Amino acid sequence: MRWTDIYDIAAELAEAHPDVDPKFVNFVDLRGWVIALEEFDDDPERCGEKILEAIQAAWIEEIE
Predict the structure, then answer these.
(1) 3-state SS string over the chain?
(2) Looking at residue 47, which CATH number applies to its domain?
(3) Would you tell me the crossing angle of helices 49-63 and 6-16 to the nearest 10 degrees?
(4) What is the tens place of the pLDDT at every residue in 40-59?
């Protein structure tokens, strides 16, 4: 996965962290969790706030 795979990342995060409410995840933790995903294979430095916001929104949508 790459940073642009927003929905795939969101699905993986929902599976990896089922007890977490993504509305309350800070971006530092979110970035770290994405980088830690087994399927993630992108440059960690290519991530910005807009990407993290999109991932967080997709994760919220995924669990609702």
Answers:
(1) CCCCCHHHHHHHHHHHCCCCCHHHCCHHHHHHHHHHCCCCCCCHHHCCHHHHHHHHHHHHHHHC
(2) 1.10.10.600
(3) 60
(4) 999 999 999 999 999 999 99
Q: What span, in angstroms and rounded, lies between the C-alpha atoms of 48 and 64?
A: 25
Structural domain of 28: 6-63
What is the rounded CA–CA span in Å between residue 60 and residue 26?
13
Task: Domain count for the chain, please give it.
Answer: 1
Q: What is the mean pLDDT of residues 25-54?
A: 97
* Amino acid of residue 50: K
